[in-house]
Amino acid sequence: MTERAAFDQVAAQMTAHGWSISRQREGDEVRIEGTHADGAAVMATARLKAKGWEMRYYVIGNGSSHWVRVRRDGLVNFLESGELAPTAQTWPVMHSKCSCRKQYAPTQARALRALEEARRRHLRKGSEKVEERVYRCPADARRWHMTAKTAWNGRETWAEVKA
Q1: What confidence tens digit (pLDDT) does each residue in 87-143 have?
Q2: Do 11 and 70 lie in a common domain?
Q3: 18 with 8: CB under 8 angstroms?
Q4: What is the pTM of this model?
Q5: Is residue 38 located within the same domain as residue 112?
Q6: pLDDT for 147
Q7: What is the 3-state secondary structure (H, E, C) of 21-87?
Q8: Is residue 99 included in any domain, yes or no?
């Protein structure tokens, strides 16, 4: 199965089970992300290596604050049930390429909720600085940060890809 076919199959499974999906590409890496209304999220990545495409799958449950890496069958089960099977093989994602020392959220939905709370605190306390938006960490796709800047002049590293 080609990388494109495997990703299309994962995207179809996400959609069939009520997940909202987005696809991104940068150079020799592609990614599909899925978010669910209950707050859970999944990510499938593929990197072109010398021997072909290396695919990895990550999930984060509604109550969890950390991503875990799973095999493809674990991802499929998670997409269908919203939970990891007790027998699913998992690897905690303990490292991050993020070095910016900012607070972070593991998903965009959680970052947006944190942004709403920060704005409510600003209204209650009248602090000088108010957070304006969230953005994906340029160094680690599994982290989202808040910023008071209304716009970023840098280049977005990941480009949204239409199906």
Answers
A1: 999 998 877 888 888 888 888 888 888 899 888 888 888 767 788 888 888 888 888
A2: yes
A3: no
A4: 0.76
A5: no
A6: 86
A7: EEEEEECCEEEEEEECCCCCEEEEEEEEECCEEEEEEEEECCCCCCCEEECHHHHHHHHHHCCCCCC
A8: no
